[in-house]
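Entry for the shared binder. Reason: the reviewer on the internal report wants the predicted structure included alongside the sequence.
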Amino acid sequence: MKIAIIGCGWIGKKLSKYLKDQNHYIIATTTSSENLSALKEIASEVHVLDFNTTENFDFLNDVDVAIFSIPISRNDWFEGFEKLNKQFPKTILFSSTGIYPQENKTFTEKDTEHLRTDILKAENLIKEKYPQTNILRFGGLMGDERSIQNIFKNKVPENPQKQVNYIHFEDILAIVEKLIYSEKKSEIYNIVAPKHPTIAEILNLETQNFNGENQRIISSECFIQDFNYTFIHPNPKYF
């Protein structure tokens, strides 16, 4: 397949290499020419794409799947995005579980009240242009150098009893690959590891007993059920 990854940041780069290794033709884009040389090592074709300045999108002709991996909460791309005059058979948007309010409950995709306005606006903008888009709302991105141990290497967590909503990048790669071959359209999925240990548990900190009640949890049960998916890394304690 010819797959465009629009916005190759941390997860986009890993996805580009993974899909290219699966013999897909990968078009990777970046907003900075400084990133071109590094991307050429992990993609079949590389272009600078800045929605505020790019006028010619012909390099996206005949793309089978467009994956939007742009900073979802930054609205500086909104107006320029309207200029994108290409159609794609399949589209995927990388969003964030940060869309859900900071309330102590278990959130599913059916929760639509009090969503974060900037992220919701971005999701709706993509859906208006590409109604077939499947939206993946990622928890905190983890794996390799990204770990809770590194985050708190030189500081003490303010709330060690907080349960985490994290996702390992290797699961993201596997999940995106499943969606690429799926006939699913216009779906929203929370992509979060199914286990939610506390920060204290991950860091092996001694704290008072914790009963796990009244916490903000993001459920990925919908994707698990729809795809009969077994997480490669189900527990952030072992990321």
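Summary line for the report: Residues 140 and 166 are 4 Å apart (CA to CA).
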